[in-house]
Design a protein that fits this description.
Layout: H1 2-21, H2 28-43, E1 45-54, E2 59-66, H3 70-73, E3 77-79, H4 83-91, E4 95-97, H5 109-114, E5 121-128, E6 131-141, H6 149-189, H7 200-213, E7 219-222, H8 229-238, E8 247-251, H9 257-265, H10 282-285, E9 290-294, H11 301-313, E10 315-316, E11 325-326, E12 330-335, H12 339-344, H13 350-356, E13 359-362, H14 372-388, E14 394-395, H15 397-405, H16 411-425, E15 430-431, H17 445-449, H18 454-472, H19 477-484, H20 488-497
Parallel strand pairs: 7-12, 7-13, 8-9, 9-12, 14-15
Antiparallel strand pairs: 1-2, 1-6, 2-3, 4-5, 5-6, 10-11
Helix pairs in contact: 1-2, 1-6, 2-6, 7-8, 14-16, 18-19, 19-20
């Protein structure tokens, strides 16, 4: 009866895992952890590991390690053929070793370094199309007994499930990357940019922008140079009822005053030297769509009067013309200037400011949304890999730390340029800190905490200090907690709450 009950538990676990495999491809690591935890519990073992083969260097890395010494085990790697797991991977065959000390294939270095006595091991390959992509290794029966052929059969079933999970996860990740790159290319071809941002500050601002998009009210985008004001303008237009009509962009600081008026409102033949024919301006081109006036703070005062009339009456005259032209245009303006100070100094008309400032949206600088830095860096890496025709896989942990600690005075635009330079000069498959050409590597405390509440500033300090200490201890949470003077359970909670990623 007991054996029947145990078998029923195993079958129920297999059914549960199969359901997860067929429904959740996005979080492959959590699914693998579930599989290994189930296998360890049902085979009744002390510890277990899942190692994946890296085809680039033919080494095995501990993707998951469970048991009392699990976090310490994940520091190590094996060469192909090294140890029991390495032998299984090299030979693509399962193996039971119930007395590891008598088996020359046993690699004792890891057990000795982490002080974990190992008596017996059962290891099976994870196969995708008969090719070994990893190994599941189970260590020591809890009762001190031997692993059996029945244990091996069950573990091979779990290994098959794990291999499917790995394959699904990799396929899902590849498809997601291809979709992102394709969307980026389509957006670029259409003249738009892919919007990347996952931090709370940027999500909050995007939510406001998308609500504003449903209206026809003027929007004023505020923020430093390079924060992505144009991308917000694009999102507002793309999510508005005007999305099927044009988004016309004008940089008010890029043209001299005499050309800017003609650029905005057009001109008639003979209006000035060189005006050989009638020409439509940007407002006419934007009819029934949206016009984005970037750097509106640089608009000359005489043109501010004409712009005010367009907003109030939806009409204007071309340069040199007398006929009133009516347009239906939604206006989005942007500036990196302190526009209220410009109004006070007389450089910007107060009545125009109030007309534009119906829905103001302040875009925070990159240093105030540091959680976006890694995902932006990854996005730019993939883009420049494609454009420069390189195969750089990732950033080193130290390189990410440099990106996170820099103040980014040029914001997202500066980050994009830094990644492009790094891709150009990097000759290996990973980007290291020396590939970045930044004005300063570390920022001052004033830059890091400026404008933040005490709670936010404390959390920033905690996040960077804990990550630094974890890196110093190779992410051994027990050692890190001891060094920090806190309980390990509290450290685990902080890692989750502060979203600290390895």
């Amino acid at each position: 009866m007991l054996k029947s009950a145990i078998d029923r538990n195993k079958f129920e676990t297999l059914i549960e895992i199969n359901a997860l495999i067929n429904s959740e491809y996005s979080d492959g690591k959590e699914l693998l952890k579930t599989i290994i935890e189930s296998a360890t519990r049902l085979i009744e073992a002390d510890a277990s590991s899942l190692l994946l083969v890296n085809p680039e260097n033919n080494k095995l890395y501990f993707e998951i390690a469970l048991g009392a010494k699990g976090p310490e085990v994940q520091r190590f790697s094996l060469n192909m053929g090294e140890g029991i797991a390495g032998w299984v991977a090299a030979n693509n065959r399962s193996l039971i070793v119930n007395d590891v000390k008598s088996d020359p294939r046993f690699f004792s270095d890891i057990s000795e370094k982490i002080n974990f006595p190992t008596k017996s091991i059962i290891a099976v390959p994870m196969r995708v199309k008969e090719h070994c992509v990893g190994v599941i290794e189970i260590i020591n029966k809890v009762d001190g007994g031997n692993f059996t052929e029945e244990d091996l059969e069950w573990l091979e079933i779990f290994a098959t499930q794990a291999a499917i999970a790995v394959q699904n996860s990799r396929s899902f990740q590849k498809v997601q990357e291809e979709i992102t790159l394709l969307q980026d290319k389509i957006q670029t071809d259409k003249g738009y940019h892919t919007f990347i941002g996952d931090s709370k500050p940027i999500k909050d601002k995007l939510d406001i922008a998308l609500r504003a998009a449903k209206t026809d009210s003027s929007v004023l985008l505020l923020g430093e140079s390079g924060v992505g004001k144009e991308l917000f303008a694009e999102q507002i237009h793309l999510h508005s009822p005007r999305s099927n009509n044009p988004l016309i962009r004008v940089n008010c600081a890029a043209l001299p005053e005499n050309l800017l008026e003609s650029e905005l409102f057009g001109h008639v033949k003979g209006a000035f030297t060189g005006a050989s024919s009638d020409r439509r301006g940007r407002f006419e081109l934007a009819d029934r769509g949206t016009i984005f006036l970037d750097e509106i703070g640089d608009l000359p005062l005489n043109l501010q009067v004409k712009l005010l009339r367009v907003i109030q009456h939806r009409m204007f005259e071309r340069v040199g013309g007398t006929d009133a032209i009516k347009v239906d245009v939604r206006i989005i303006a942007a500036t990196n200037k302190d526009i209220e100070a410009e109004v006070e100094s007389g450089n910007f008309r107060a009545d125009l400011y109030y007309r534009l400032n119906v829905l103001p949206i302040y875009i925070p600088p990159l240093r105030e949304r540091r959680d976006d830095i890694p995902i932006l860096a990854e996005f730019f890496l993939k883009r420049f890999n494609r454009e420069i025709k390189k195969q750089i896989n990732s950033f080193t942990a130290e390189a990410i730390e440099v990106l996170l600690s820099y103040s980014w005075p040029g914001n997202v635009r500066e980050l994009e340029n830094a990644i492009e330079r790094a891709v150009v000069i990097t000759q290996s498959d990973t980007i290291s800190p020396d590939a970045f050409v930044l004005d300063k590597i570390s920022e001052s405390a004033e830059d890091a905490y400026s404008g933040r509440s005490l709670k936010e500033s404390v959390n920033i300090f905690k996040k960077h200090y804990i990550r630094q200490t974890l890196d110093m201890n190779r992410w051994n949470q027990t050692k890190t907690a001891k060094l920090l003077g806190i309980q390990r359970t509290y450290l685990s909670r902080l890692i989750k709450e502060l979203n600290i990623n390895r």
